Amino acid sequence: MMQTSIQAVSTLIALLLPLLAFSVPVVPGGVYLWPIPEGASQVSFQNKPVMRVADAALIGIPISQATGAAALNYRLGSQQLSHEFIVMDKAYTEQHITLTNKAMVNPPPASLDRIREESVRQRALYNTFADPVDLGAGFKMPLHGITTSLYGHRRFFNGEPRSPHSGLDIAADRGTIVRAAGNATITLADNLYFNGNTLFLDHGQGLITMYCHLSELLVDVGDSIIQGQEIGKVGATGRATGPHLHWSVSLNGNRVDPELFMQALNAQTVDTAADPN
Ligand SMILES: [Zn+2]
């Protein structure tokens, strides 16, 4: 009798676990995991194709997304259908940062062309939708360190409002090895004005990760990278107050919260319970 009820409870937990993964609130800057109906194809969000992991679509929500109803589009047979979901509110906190290098707050006119060109180049890479890559092992954190700034902070540099923080800042000693979060191809390895020495890793299907402020790049454009491979070293190049890794995750063209993204991806791909990474 006792045995039966224990079995019943563990069966119930096993049934509820996948639901828990789906119950993470959908917020601006978060992700939405949608089990794709059988036979459905061409799932898109805001006119962009979205990532497919196992039997689900994994969609990046822009931080500028209005709360309330949002919709995905998809094809089923000859029909064009839409699926509505709700984006909940999330209050991101403010972060005030003092920079002694004024050129990083208000760049000199001579640098504006360079900054504009770099921004166009990065946007094009973020909007790339490459062939699927094996992400069966999910994502792992690129390094162990102290998280000094969360995704989404509304930022002020020397009192002047700037865009919300588009990634995670992880502080570590200069020279600490940075590793690839997942299998990928390097699509950018360059020194950028704000981001310093930077790498873009394309993980296929519109999933791109960016690693900034590196002191050294250990890989080059076109390289095929496996998860955990050494790709660079922590530094403070570009707009940085000290050595740290700025790590961004971009999904269907939107920079999303790396922590929420990893929860969703790893719930779909691997059992991370035994792995503190
Ligand atoms: Zn940062």
What key phrases describe this protein's structure?
Immunoglobulin-like, Glucose Permease (Domain IIA), binds zinc ion, disordered C terminus, 21 strands, 277 residues, single chain, alpha+beta, 4-stranded antiparallel β-sheet, 37% strand
Describe the model.
- This protein has 277 residues and is an alpha+beta fold.
- The radius of gyration is 20 Å and the shape is globular.
- The two termini are 39 Å apart.
- The model is unreliable at 272-277 (pLDDT under 50).
- The chain has helices at residues 2-22, 109-126, 258-269, and strands at 31-35, 40-45, 48-49, 51-53, 56-60, 68-76, 79-87, 94-97, 146-149, 154-157, 160-161, 168-171, 177-179, 184-192, 196-202, 207-214, 216-217, 224-225, 230-233, 244-251, 254-256.
- Strands 9, 12, 14, 15, 16, 18, 20 and 21 form an 8-stranded antiparallel β-sheet that branches. Strands 3-2-6-7 form a 4-stranded antiparallel β-sheet, with no helix packed on it. The chain has a 3-stranded antiparallel β-sheet with strand order 1-5-4, covered by helices on one side.
- The chain has 2 domains: 2-87, Immunoglobulin-like; 94-267, Glucose Permease (Domain IIA) (Distorted Sandwich).
- Zinc ion binds next to loops.
